[in-house]
Amino acid sequence: MSEQHINPGAEFLAATTHRPDDVPAGTALFALAQKYAGARVRLAGRHDRDQESVVGDALTQIAMGEAIRRTVRSERGSMVAQALRLGATWDQVVAALDTTELAAADDLRVWAEGQRTLYHQHLAEGADGLIGLDEAAYAEVMRQVAFALGRAAVDARDTHAEQAPRLRAAIAAAPMVDTVGELRALLERLPGEMPLQLADHHRALPDEEDQVHTVHPSLVAMVSGLATPAESKQPGLLLTQVYVPFPADEEEQAAVATRDDLVPAVPAYGELARAAHYLERGQLRLGLKDVAEVLEELAHLVGEVAAGYVSRGSDAESTLRVETERIAHTAARVGKLADEVEAAE
Q1: How far, in Å, CA of 118 to CA of 39, rounded?
Q2: Sign of dihedral through CA atoms 72, 77, 82, 83?
Q3: Which of 257, 292, 252 shows the shortest CA–CA distance to 272?
Q4: Which end of the chain is more exposed for a tag (fewer CB within 10 A), N or C?
Q5: Alpha carbons 258 and 275: distance in angstroms, whole number
């Protein structure tokens, strides 16, 4: 048989392939399916076959199944784009994928951005055949994305408006979460797609010596689709780490956990968070004192830590030393100002 008559997939079908990563790039989906089906058929008639070949077919079936899954997943965006281009509606696409409109639109967006990047890479390299999406084609796809995101945002607003009272009640019933079990019980009462955010800083009662750590869940408004036509707010779960008095009964601790006037606790970078807390409430003396401490720490980082990694006597070291002195002087002036502002008040 001459070379031009050899089935281009024959070598792949005959090769031992027990890992999806062993599949050559660009292998057609039908070849993957054919190899998967061949292994499956052989396994069905595995009687009177040696164990090594049977195990090999079992591994091939697994590997080809995974390779098919990856291939289909990677092509989802292009398939959505093609369906819409041929006249399918978003409702039909979402039904075909058995997913949400938001998820399908995001798949399309990611694919379009990758195709635009690919087009410009080939353009910059002066390739003879350009592939991917040029700006006009990219804009057309993104119009479809914006349309879907807009629909999803409207649906989300309606859904969240209906759910808000139930969400508030569920979260209010758990002012403190101290164990994995308690957190799981709370999450089971909330929508799985509800946004989750962790507070950046611990909070605590000021000047309270005996306190224990807990987590306070609260309902907050979170923005999705920021700076896009689909921008909207939706309820989200915020988990804040709080120190509550000890000893105290659970009701007293819960009352503290839900307070919104607690100051940030002191751990790493706590002075900066605490400074913001005090200054935003007009407590200038306390806030400026913490600002001065932050500046002193910055002076140490610039003059000792950063300067230790540059050549001694270099221009870089000289510049870092100068900036260190400036920061240190600023820290001293802010600290002095804190006392003067307090006196003026």
Answers
A1: 36
A2: positive
A3: 292
A4: N
A5: 21
Element (H or E) spanning 213, and its range? strand 211-224
Q: pLDDT tens-digit profile of 265-298?
A: 655 446 777 787 778 778 888 888 888 888 998 9
Q: For position 1, what pLDDT does the model report?
A: 37
- Residue 233, φ and ψ in degrees, nearest 5: -100, 145
Six-digit token string for 237: 């779960």
Q: Which residues contact 206 (CB under 8 A, 6 or more apart)?
A: 263
List Cβ neighbours of 145 (8 Å cut-off, separation of 6 or more): 105, 108, 109, 112
**Angle of helix 135-172 relative to helix 76-85, nearest 10 degrees?**
110
Cα→Cα distances 235→109, 174, 202, 210, 211, Å:
24, 17, 22, 34, 30
CA diameter of the chain: 100
Look at the chain and count its residues: 345
Question: How many whole angstroms separate alpha carbon 217 and alpha carbon 168?
Answer: 11
Nearest by Cα to 257 from 222, 212, 209, 220: 212
Q: How is residue 225 written in tokens?
A: 């689709």
Is residue 340's pLDDT more than 50? Answer: yes
Confidence of residue 3 (pLDDT cuts 50, 70, 90): very low
pLDDT higher than threshold 70 for residue 67: yes
- The residue written with tokens 């062993």 in the block is 22
- As a whole number of angstroms, the distance between CA 189 and CA 184 comes to 9
Q: What is the DSSP string of 214-275?
A: EEEEEEEEEEESTTSTT-EEEEEEEEEEEEEESS--HHHHHHHHT-S-PEEP-TTTHHHHHH
Model confidence at 229, pLDDT cuts 50, 70, 90, reads low
More confident residue, 260 or 143: 143
